[in-house]
Amino acid sequence: MQEIKKSYLNILLFFQRKKQNISVKVQNKYNMKKRDLVFYIIGVVLIIIGLFYDAQISRFFAENRASIINSVMIFASFLANWYIWIFIALILSLILWKGKKQFIAPLWLSVIIGQAVVFILKLIIIRERPYDALGIIGLDIHSDSSFPSGHAAAVFSILPVIERAFKKTYLIFLLFACLVVLSRIYLGAHYLTDVATGALIAYTIGLIVVEYKDKIVFWKKK
């Protein structure tokens, strides 16, 4: 009789733990969906603002620069260059290798697809850089199209992976991503619509890759 009671209690504890784990997972997924919605709302609002005030915003930053802020913005922008980003992705992959291997493929696919889409759009949509179109001083000169921002795409493409694989550092990375996109406007390299569109495109790609990773055959565990 005692053994039966003990077995019954163990079964109850097992299902209770299962219920708690499911509740935590559901809550975490709900929080992620809510953050995604907030991100899209902010992104769309920024694009709308940019459609009306792109030039004014770029001029404002160009006319209110300070040497120490220039250095910070140039460094932040430098960290989002493609060759630096490959190095960062390699480091993240090594970290993910220990227990979170399922996020390595989404990490790289998000970056590669995001940059490929941005590259194609730059070839299709030719837009002058703010320093050329507005006659402001540019602190980061490029010869390709301004729209959309490749730097913004780089940092925001892996944000969905960071959100799920590195929850404790997500906020820090988000702040860094925001600093990068701000630096692109500050340096005169992009308009607000460039960075907001690049961020939205890349984040959407990263989100799709992460959400559907388990449905792609070669990612499934054997």
Structure description:
The chain is mostly helical and 222 residues long. The chain has one domain (32-216): Vanadium-containing Chloroperoxidase, domain 1, CATH 1.20.144. It is 75% helix and 0% strand. It has nine helices and no strands. It has helices at 2-63, 67-78, 82-96, 104-124, 130-133, 150-157, 159-165, 170-186, 192-211. The longest helix is centred in the first third of the chain and has 62 residues, at 2-63. Residues 11-28 have low confidence and may be disordered.
Could you list some keywords that capture this structure?
222 residues, mainly alpha, Vanadium-containing Chloroperoxidase, domain 1, 9 helices, globular
Order of helices and strands: HHHHHHHHH
Total DSSP E strands: 0
**Biggest sheet layout:** none
Report how far apart the termini are.
Answer: 42 Å
Query: What is the CATH topology assignment?
Result: Vanadium-containing Chloroperoxidase, domain 1
CATH class: Mainly Alpha
Which radius of gyration do the C-alpha atoms yield? 22 Å
Helical stretch count?
9
Silhouette: globular
Note the quaternary state here.
Answer: single chain
| CATH architecture title | Up-down Bundle
Question: Segments where pLDDT lies below 50 for 5+ residues?
Answer: 11-28
Overall average pLDDT:
84
Number of domains: 1
Topology:
Blueprint: H1 2-63, H2 67-78, H3 82-96, H4 104-124, H5 130-133, H6 150-157, H7 159-165, H8 170-186, H9 192-211
Helix pairs in contact: 1-9, 2-8, 4-6, 4-9, 6-8, 6-9, 8-9
Entry summary:
This protein is mostly helical and 222 residues long. Helices cover 75% and strands 0% of the residues. Helix 4 runs antiparallel to helix 9.
